[in-house]
Model the fold of this input.
Amino acid sequence: MATLKEVADSAGVPMLTAFQALNQHDTVDEVTRRCVQEAADNLNYTLKITQIDIADLAGVAKGTVSYALNNSELIKPATRQKVLEAAQMLGYHLNISARNLRMNRTGVVGYSWHVADDPSRMNNLLDRFIYRVTMAAEERSFHLLTFVQPQKNADRVYESLISTSRVDGFIISDVTYNDPRIARLTAMRAPFAAFGGMYLENADFAYVDVDGKKGIRLVMDHLLEQGHERIGLLGWPSGWPFGDAREASYREAMRDAGVRIENDWIAYTHNILDSAAMAAQQIMNSKYPPTALVCANDLMAFGAKSYLDSVNLRIPDDVALTGYDDDPTAQFLGITSVHQPIDELAEALFEILLGDINQEPLPNRQIIFNPELVIRRSTR
Amino acid sequence: MATLKEVADSAGVPMLTAFQALNQHDTVDEVTRRCVQEAADNLNYTLKITQIDIADLAGVAKGTVSYALNNSELIKPATRQKVLEAAQMLGYHLNISARNLRMNRTGVVGYSWHVADDPSRMNNLLDRFIYRVTMAAEERSFHLLTFVQPQKNADRVYESLISTSRVDGFIISDVTYNDPRIARLTAMRAPFAAFGGMYLENADFAYVDVDGKKGIRLVMDHLLEQGHERIGLLGWPSGWPFGDAREASYREAMRDAGVRIENDWIAYTHNILDSAAMAAQQIMNSKYPPTALVCANDLMAFGAKSYLDSVNLRIPDDVALTGYDDDPTAQFLGITSVHQPIDELAEALFEILLGDINQEPLPNRQIIFNPELVIRRSTR
DNA sequence: CACTATTTTTGAGACGTCTCAAAAAAAGAT
DNA sequence: ATCTTTTTTTGAGACGTCTCAAAAATAGTG
Done:
């Protein structure tokens, strides 16, 4: 296709005039407008400003324009200025696809926010997480592509996204044992960084994590200090490293305190309020009902609280209650919880990923953050 | 750069052998591997399978490959088969960037999921919405780019994304009066489709919506039928079309029922649990406290319920309570709510957007869905 | 079999950018 | 003023795809 300059020449007007004419700008009179339009039609031209047009207008070579726009040190300041002005006048916008093709990168990172048909999709923590990751990405001129992963063969979706050059890398959360996504991405040498991984054996990939064992230990010490001994646990079904770590930490703390755990002090549930309430009921129906209930996250604590309220068990007088994640619900309900430094964590995670994408891996590709106990009226 | 065939020829081996050699496949012996590697190094070749390689292997022209891969009717089935087999053997993956450049589209749609520094970010409805939109997009080979929009000048972010060809169009939610994003996108002729808009005057753009007035009317009629007259409203501060519509509908219903609304039966709050609880308190402290409380969404209803529980007002005996959105919290707490057909709505919205993107606009670009009352124990 | 009509394949070229090696301009040294 | 060094600009070419007009192959017809 023709360039703007060719159109302008053919119509016998300056480039800028041609530009304005095609933009229907009213600084150009009707006659000229029609004339330019005709020239454009003849050359089968549709207005689309490229670096070539800028070069033509500024009177430099197209290579110069590219360098100038990218703030290359090579270019003399005066020239750069000239180019930038021309770009400004023509309202230039870089074409990302062209850059992507040329540079073989996309400036996009993938994150699977949703799992298909997963009913337990209430997760304020991950919501905050993804928000901060997006911010971190955008500050570095990256964007986030969110996609849905199927329950089965999720790794294929990841493979397809990376091998079609749709994304440069991935953020991963909810890592499982022997996670097929990690196996696949590692095999493909595709950049990725995970939220979670410290309690996986031989975790040989980039991750950030918050020490979940430590978090539960904070909770347990707090409760034990207050004299609680019969402490129950509401956890997730095993299979998730972070969940298993929390349970392990609970058990360790009980052992260290010399308290034997009754079987029915522990119940498992998914992130569903109803199930959590039922699980709480189950625990409280123990022959030796606990005086404190530790929940694996705030959603469960909410569910548990509802149950306790419904049977008029007072919190904390009859039963102390704790959650995990410090989400808005726990804040509102006054439930003691554990705060995770999501903001810093997301930032760090993206930095690590970016290093891998740019083939300049950061020295420290595995960072562990400390959780913080937030004591509220549910335990005092 | 060289092609795989050139490398193979230079090394004096068949293409497939060269391919496997470069892949370190162990069907190829050490010597051949090194030989091929050397040839590749000489030609400065790095393995990257393109349509040209497929063409070389299948013995057809590169144009044929493109047609065959895109299931063009032009190509003879036998040829297509040959091409597909070759593609399979070489593990070919389309390069999206190249296609995007050539076709001047991206297969990506933008959606601003988060607003920067917005504290009131708990929205199960939009979470579900975005999940379904993503699904709809992916079923049509599109992807979703999520970005953060600033509180001010959000329209610039939209402009930049579309004019750099980062996305083909947008999904928009939380439309305001005289929304600058809509003005900007309309002026740019950028494709977009909104969730919400039926209660905007002269809404001259593509949207889907659920009739909010009708939804509140369902709630009101339900309450009035049960004999309630003193009905309070927990709403959002005015400025949001959907919020204003809900309030208007409340007022209409009261007027139609011949009930005068006391000033302090209405309170406003953002999507923050604490504020909602306080607003509920305010209303209940009225000289003529309502016997029913209508909330603009389920989050507020949750906040209100907490307050009511805390002062031992029984639901529904002392105060009936309703929410809106039918989210998991309302389901769990047994709060009467209004269900919006998010799943169908998201699907329809994406279809409309796709039509606009493909320059084949659907005949009906504004679709209104009906809400549905879900009665729970908070009102019976 | 020769000729036409139809189907199928071909190969070039364009999309807009970045980057390399080479050329030109400017600055510095003698 | 001439030559050398350094800075700056140039212009071609490649990235991988799709698509057009033209060529080749095949089928159909008398």
Summary: The CA atoms of residues 213 and 246 of chain B lie 5 Å apart.
